[in-house]
Amino acid sequence: MDRSQWAPPWRPGPRLVSLVVGGIAAVLVFYPIVYLIQASLSVGDPQARPPEAYGLDNYAGLSRFAQIFWNTAIVAVVATVFAIILGFAMGWMLSRANVPGREALEQLMALPYYVTPLMGALAWSLIGSPSGGFLNQVWRALGGEGHLVDITTPYGIAWVMALFEGSVAFVMIGAVMKSMDPALEEASQVLGAGRLRTMLRITLPLVLPGVLGAAIFVFAEMLGSFSAALVLGLPNRFYVVTTAMYQLVSQYPPRFPQAAAMGVSLFAVMFAMVYIYRRIISRGSYVTITGKAFRPRAMDVGRLRWILFGVCLVYLAVAVLLPVLTLLYASVQRLATAFPRLDNFTLANYVTALSLDAVRSALWNSLLLGCATSILGVLLMSFLSWLIYRSRLPGAGVIEYLLMFPQAVPRLVFAFGMLWAWLVFPIPIYGTLWLLLIAYLTVFLPLGIRTISGVILQIDRTLEESAQMCGAPWGYRLRTVTMPLLRPGLIAAALLLFIASVRELGASILLMGPKAKVITPAIVESWFSTSTELTAAMALLQTLPVALALALLFAVARRALRPVGE
Amino acid sequence: MTVSPAPETRHAASIDVKDLVVRYGAVTAVRGVSFSVAAGEHLTLLGPSGCGKTTTLRAIAGLEKPTAGEIRIDGTVVYGAGSRVQVPPERRGLSMVFQSYAIWPHMTVFDNVAYGLRVRRESETAIAERVGWALDLVQMGELAGRSASKLSGGQQQRVALARAFVFSPSVLLFDEPLSNLDAKLRAEMRIELKELQRQLGITSVYVTHDLEEALAISDRIIVMRNGVI
Amino acid sequence: MPGSPKPQVTRRTFLQAGAALAALPILGSTRSASSQTAAKVTKVLDFSTGADLAKAEQEGEVIYYGHDGEAAIAVLLEAFRKDFPKIKTSYVRLQTGALYAKITAERSANRYLVDVLQLSDISPAIDFQKKGGYETYLSPEYAAYKPAYLSSPAGSFAWVGVTFAGISYNRGKVKAEQAPKTWKDILNPAFKDGISAKLASSGMQHAQWYMLRKLYGNDFWPEFAKLRPRGFDARAQLFDRLAKGDDRVCALAEYGGYTLFKEKGADIEFVSPPDGLPATPAIIGAVNRAPHPEASKLFVDWAMSNRGQAVYQNQSLLLYGSLRNDAPPMATGKKLADFKLLFPSDWADFQASHAVFVKEWNGIMGL
After folding, report:
1. Could you say which of B183, C96, C191, C267 would form a disulfide bridge with C195 (CB–CB 3.0 to 4.6 Å)?
2. Is the same domain home to C270 and C224?
3. Which residues does C51 contact at the CB level (< 8 Å), separation at least 6?
């Protein structure tokens, strides 16, 4: 064969593929949104489907709920402030100061994310309820008046939100810190500026844009938060948009149009926030998680390092150990109180919990769904990431925009649209795990793609180009070069998706059916209708196996996670 | 040491570049460059960094999409603004050695070199023969089984070379392949490269900013500056 | 009179849910009982059933939608499974309002997923009956109940138990002189921000709202609203908080919940106001177009029989009062007749009031 004339056989062009992919993505992402908007415009009989008449009455009527919007804003702002302060402090400590055990601590910082915000909220309601909370009981026993801490106030809710949902702030700010050239700080120190001064005058202004971006992103997330407000706010008549929507559709007759109008408003605000965030990020040379990371030499802070180490430990204790221990303690009592009494201890809660459908089938379903989400999700999202960032296809930007769209929609709102939309879809997937799978894959698109593209962008382009020059068409390249190099990152992404799917509440609580119960919403339903002690037992029973599964996965994956080639 | 099979007669292609313009947004990297390379000739594009030589090379390879002009390989248009042709790199029958070598760390040396042959669905026996021959030519024969991530800079360089010519491309493109090596290695490699070129007898286009290098390995030098010759 | 055919369940019928409520005919209509293909009555264990046991066991599953607390439902279904090990059970638990919203949404999209439905408010039950949602099935066990405790015409649903509510307070948080004694006492401003009740989705709450409104006038509840009461989904939550002192007084204290928590050692007290205790039936019925029709009939028979009623009456998480003619006393030793129970005299009026109730109650609860 005359090799110099060889040409690879024709394969379906990437252009066609990107069109198909873009089409499917658009349907998945926009279908629920369209229905959501349609529902919000429905005036006339609220139960009519399709709507009898269209109008803006529901939006006009939103002024009735002004208090709720205000609540949402306050809680989100305060939570963001808390989260950014925490994230910045931890981020600086672990990347700039020579705190002992930095690497290990950094990994451990991810733990609050695994202790779902729901469990955190349950635990903190046990700790900080104005009357029955453990902390307050102790306070009164010590002679104090009233209560020391009230976790059901907006500040309390914001605190819990920041603690468990704000770990994303830590990751983002940490990335910003890592990509700062340490020479800039060192120069300041050489010129005689003290540590504090350096941090305030050099570090802070440099990372400020990145921190601002993180703040906006976190704010958008907080707007859509559901768990903490549900557990802590509802009993106190304190509603935010997400919990109000949930209540509106949980009554008879359900008020879909009003709930939809609220959802659309929230979505509009989140959309604006995400838009601003992306403008900040794309402007200038602000680092993203994908940038080259410096490994700066940590500043020697002398004896302060032990204090900082202690601070990190305290944070971990409060965010991880405290909730688990509290729940454990409550679950073995008949009537949970801060002061242990021998006659109050019982294992009856566990016995009951084990007999509940919710524990047995929900656990199994969650694990199944988690595996499906992570495996399918990784396959789907790595293909999509490659499509957007590496294939240089026409329309890649449009597809990216489409796929990042769910980021701007609070997950509960999205699920609401899906509920409405998929109820009438001819395929009978309503009330099954399939619907949950589709919902999860759609709402986790931004998360997965962000993570995987971070890995993709770290792979030098020339590695793929050289495969091209050897004559490999895009499918072959993808299979033999791109995917193997991505493997460690893909495994990490799979784990992330697994965890995200198990901890999800907003998207699943509306879409569950009798055969499709999953853990987090099941815990919530138990909390609504059973005692706190039983709920605590259920929560622990349900999350412990998941934690074990995770640990197992990590152990297995650690071998595969070692950088390729070692 | 196996006896290397004699190289088959290879077809060397000619390259014609006409009025090539490559623009990135507001920046014009290459403005109206024209030149030709005869079959079997060794050409170097010489110039300081930023002069557009790498861009031109990558345009010939098909890795950059030019804005205007025409590129022909062996008379066939692979890029033409007027005729709106853009043949993708994998179909041009060219080969390239990258500045960063771009060796795949998750494969062995053997697999790296065999890649191009496997894409072309050669039989495993044929592949083994040719890879052996190519590796011997770059003096990496003994390291065929080693993982590619454990190679030194010079060794990676050679593997990149072997990978590039093992499937007998009609043109070899070099993007500053020696710039990442230290002076001593560079001098050594220069000689080896020259020898390799002679043995293979295919057209090559070489990009560098080092005059000495250019003089050592090419038949003809084109000096570029600011996007023009 | 010829039997009326089984009503068609179409999409259109469900779309008129909201409007339908207002336009319903009065109970006790002259519609004759629809004809029923005579089911063979057999004796299973110690009760009679019109279901085909073999077929039910072949179906192998029953899906139950109910409003009781999750643990309570588990206990109920566990008891059923003990008697019929071949039949699996699964359930959905939501408060009545949410439950009914869910089932109507599902059916309007042609998804028929439910075998047995239990509600705590008669209004949605009547509504469901009008829509033909219930399977017309005359359980042989109905013979042990007065006709007033069945649907009209009989065969759609039945009262599987009764729950009633008084007032309860935390003894540690409420001074003896402030302790509520009559219904008017729940309006005491001293209880502001410390009093709880259920949400608008609760049937029990509807009943209480209706009865106390009738007794004390339309201004009663707006007065109550001034106390900024807190609303919850289930009696377990109400008593949980009361026991811990997070609330001082519970305005809708179900007797069953009180009993349970008193046993757990909570420092709470129950008050039976002299004017009476609003009560609501728990309504059970087999659902039309069920995925497991024989199993669903079997379940209804079981629940209405002495066996099932014993579970409803005696299980600490349920503690309903049974309405069977031959029912034994409740677990606490008292009988239903020992309490002054308040039921609406005009069910149609009660049902028509539902929309008004929801609107006012949501306002009271801050939504």
Report:
1. C191
2. yes
3. C39, C294, C295, C297, C298, C301
Helix (H) or strand (E) holding C283: strand C277-286
Q: What is the DSSP letter of C25?
A: P
Size of interface A-C (CB pairs under 8 A): 156
| Residue B59 and residue B79 in contact, taking contact as beta carbons nearer than 8 Å | yes
Please say whether the beta carbons of A489 and A497 come within 8 A: no
Residue with tokens 């697999």: B111
Nearest residue, CB atoms, A4 vs list B11, B104, B147: B11
Q: Are residues C46 and C158 in the same domain?
A: yes
CA distance C42 to chain A (A): 30
Tokens of B4: 């290397």
Residue C72: φ, ψ to 5° = -65, -45
Q: What is the DSSP letter of C346?
A: -
CATH no., domain A68-346:
1.10.3720.10
Which residue's structure tokens are 């791109």?
A482
Long-range pairs of A313-318 with CB within 8 A, sequence gap ≥ 24? A315/A86, A315/A90, A316/A105, A316/A108, A316/A109, A316/A111, A318/A163
Q: Does B102 touch chain A (CB under 8 A)?
A: yes
- Write the secondary structure of A143-181 as one string of H (helix), E (strand) and C (coil): CCCCCCCCCCCHHHHHHHHHHHHCHHHHHHHHHHHHCCC
A164: tokens are 């468990």
End-to-end Cα, chain C, rounded Å? 49
Instruction: Kindly report the length of chain B.
Output: 229
CB contact A343 to B (< 8 Å) = no
Same domain, C226 and C260: yes
What is the CATH number for C271?
3.40.190.10
d(CA C98, CA C94): 6
Over the stretch A52-92, which tens digit does the pLDDT of each residue have?
777 787 788 888 888 899 999 999 999 999 999 988 888 87
Residue C79 lies in a domain: yes
CA distances from A381 to A384, A456, A501, A562 (A): 5, 11, 15, 22
ipTM of the prediction: 0.84
- Chain B touched by A565 (CB under 8 Å): yes
Across chain C, which has 367 residues, the per-10-residue mean pLDDT values are: 38 37 33 48 86 89 91 90 91 88 82 91 90 90 89 89 92 88 91 90 91 92 92 88 90 90 88 92 93 93 92 88 85 81 88 90 86
Q: Which of C19, C70, C108 sits opposite A529 (nearest CB)?
A: C70
Relative orientation angle of helices B153-165 and B124-137, to the nearest 10 degrees: 130
3-state SS class at A343: helix
Query: And the tokens for A241?
Result: 């948009």
Beta-bridge mates of residue C231: C197
Question: What DSSP element (H or E) covers C13?
Answer: helix C11-15
Task: Identify the residue whose tokens are 């909570």.
Answer: C266
CA-to-CA distance for A69 and A74, rounded, in angstroms?
Answer: 9
- Mean pLDDT value across residues A491-501: 84
Q: At what angle do helices A66-96 and A304-316 cross, to 10 degrees?
A: 140
Count the neighbouring beta carbons within 10 Å of the beta carbon of residue A394.
11
**List of chain B residues whose C-beta atoms are within 8 Å of the C-beta of residue A467:** 104, 115
Residue C77 in any domain: the answer is yes
Domain residue limits at C220: 163-279+354-364
Contact criterion met (CB < 8 Å) for A7 and B91: yes
Q: From residue B127, give the alpha-carbon distance in Å to each of A397, B95, B146.
A: 40, 18, 17
Tokens of A90: 């931890």
Residue of C13, C15, C70, C267 to mutate, interface with A, max A Cβ within 10 Å: C70
Measure the CA–CA gap between A332 and A352, rounded to whole angstroms.
12
Q: Which of C16, C228, C244 to mutate to test the interface with A (most CBs of A within 10 A)?
A: C244
